[in-house]
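Quarterly update from the structural biology core.
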Amino acid sequence: MSNKINIALLGLGAVGENFAEHFLEIIQEGGKPVEIVAVASRHLDSPVALGFQQSGVAVFEDALDVVKMGDKVDIIFDLTGKTEIRQALRQALQASDNRHTVIAPEVMAKLLWMFFGGNEDLGEGKGGGY
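Predicted structure, tokenized:
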């Protein structure tokens, strides 16, 4: 097992974009063995999505496509706020027999947000928990 942790961020809306920018900044400044390997956004032409794409990060329009990356993704942060996406992700991971990748509960994203020093409210997702 590699020491590097590979992350996928799903949902680059107002909350996800802000989270992604802070996360990337912390990774780069701290030299941590963490890499954002995939993002999903409904708007592939957004500046953040384009920036990730230019950096060689896999960018998907359909959040479920990240499941096709298999064990190349360690943790998925679902920042879409949509319960149906979270449920579909769990089902897709199970159907692919992926027992490696985990979906971080929203409370974990909120915890990281606090460490990022984000002053704004990260937002209340509709799904909560897992």
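Confidence is low (pLDDT under 50) at residues 125-130.
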